[in-house]
Design a protein that fits this description.
The protein is an alpha+beta fold. It is built from 4 helices and 6 strands. The chain starts with a helix and ends with a helix.
Length: about 190
């Protein structure tokens, strides 16, 4: 029996396949990765510029970062007749524009402005900010004289609510002091 096992081991396996069933002694070449000569394309900006929402997320964040906390009026005397809400995605960066635009007129615009005005001004920039992500909103309120008063509301981090610009004649005078976005305001902004 030992001779049969020795013979079987020398000739192949027990099925009789013989030496042909043995693996080839020549290794199979491993394919080499190819290197592309063209550089990767940068990500395509999201959203599109429009007259309703003309700014990139970089410009929006810059205007909020430049706000002087503890300075400005407690409430704005602006009398809106309409508002355009520009929503930027949570992952927006660089040259991304708003991806959602909503318009409200009349009583809805007045109610939303009352919520903005109801937030209490903060004497200093918030010290504690969370790390969750959420959208950034730009509220562009318009009045009968074609004035545009813009606020930026963050639904994440420090939840800053900042009057960033006024375009037009006369009103509102000084911009309102920076404040924190209230849960009620965020809930109103999320409705479409």
């Amino acid at each position: 029996m030992a001779a049969v096992l020795l013979f079987t081991a020398a000739c192949g396996n027990e099925t009789g396949a013989g030496p042909a069933a043995q693996p080839s002694p020549t290794p199979t070449p491993t394919p080499t990765p190819t290197v592309s000569a063209t550089p990767p394309t940068p990500p395509t900006p999201s959203g599109t510029p429009s007259t309703d929402c003309p700014e990139t997320i970089t410009a929006v964040r810059k205007s909020v970062d430049q706000a002087v906390w503890g300075k400005g009026t407690a409430k704005s005397a602006f009398q809106p007749v309409g508002v355009t809400i520009c929503q930027y995605d949570a992952q927006s960066s660089g040259q991304d524009y708003a991806t959602v635009t909503t318009k409200r007129t009349g009583a809805q615009a007045t109610e939303l402005f009352a919520q903005v005005n109801a937030a209490k001004p903060e004497p200093k920039k918030p010290d504690f900010c969370t790390k969750e992500l959420g959208p950034t909103y730009v509220l562009r309120f318009t009045d009968n004289d074609r004035g545009v008063l813009s606020y930026t509301a963050e639904a994440f981090g420090c939840h800053r609510l900042v009057a960033t610009s006024f375009e037009g004649q006369g009103k509102p005078g000084d911009l309102a002091a920076p404040r924190s976005t209230t849960p009620e305001l965020l809930k109103s902004l999320g409705l479409r």
